[in-house]
């Protein structure tokens, strides 16, 4: 399935739910997390609906990860963090709450920045 009408991130891609765009190309969408763990917390998702890493094709993974350096640099330019964690939860047991594959880009600002 490339679009799941019940998926909140598919609705975001379709523009049915507003989001703050960080980056977009033909295959990838990046937007600010609604609940910012750190300033500039960004989610990077494939435009097709895949639940988790186990469902990703090499093609989808390639286009997604190819975009990560430029998205990370855009976050650096916008927010000037001093580091960045890139996190991905797969499955409820791993803390996944939205079942459309996503990477968390978590800019870091030093001790007490809210993460880790
Ligand atoms: P997970 O726990 O699945 O790894 O992360 C899901 C993330 O999606 C959470 O950080 C949560 O704040 C974010 N999120 C959930 N619903 C929305 C939404 O409607 N808009 C945006 N921008 N982020 C969302
Ligand atoms: Zn989806």
Question: In a nutshell, what does this entry contain?
Answer:
The protein is α+β, with helices and mostly antiparallel strands and 116 residues long. 24% of the residues lie in helices and 22% in strands.
Characterise the protein shown here:
The protein has a 5-stranded antiparallel sheet, with helices on one face. The chain is of the alpha+beta class and 116 residues long. The protein has one domain: HIT-like (HIT family, subunit A), CATH 3.30.428.10. It has 2 helices and 5 strands, in the order αβββαββ. Bound molecules: guanosine-5'-monophosphate and zinc ion.
Tell me the structural class. Answer: alpha+beta
And the CATH topology? HIT family, subunit A
Whole-number radius of gyration? 14 Å
What order do the helices and strands follow? HEEEHEE
Oligomer: single chain
Main sheet?
Answer: 5 strands, antiparallel
Beta-strand portion reads 15-25%
CATH class: Alpha Beta
CATH architecture classification: 2-Layer Sandwich
Poorly predicted parts: none
Distance between the termini: 35 Å
Strand order of the largest sheet: 1-2-3-5-4
Question: Overall pLDDT, averaged?
Answer: 97
Query: How many distinct helices?
Result: 2
Number of strands: 5
Helix content: 10-25%
User: Are any ligands bound, and if so which?
Assistant: guanosine-5'-monophosphate, zinc ion
Motif (Histidine triad motif): 100-104
Domain HIT: 8-116
Protein name: Hit-like protein involved in cell-cycle regulation
Active site: 102
């Amino acid at each position: 399935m490339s679009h799941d009408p019940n998926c909140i991130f598919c609705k975001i891609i379709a523009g049915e739910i507003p989001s703050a765009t960080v980056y977009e190309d033909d295959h990838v969408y990046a937007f600010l997390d609604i609940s910012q763990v750190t300033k500039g917390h960004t989610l990077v998702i494939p435009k097709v609906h895949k639940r988790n890493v186990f469902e990703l094709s090499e093609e989808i993974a390639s286009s997604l990860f190819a975009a990560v350096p430029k998205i990370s640099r855009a976050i650096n330019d916008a927010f000037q963090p001093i580091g960045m964690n890139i996190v991905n939860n797969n499955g409820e047991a791993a803390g996944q709450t939205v079942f459309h594959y996503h990477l968390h880009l978590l800019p870091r600002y030093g001790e007490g920045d809210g993460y880790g």
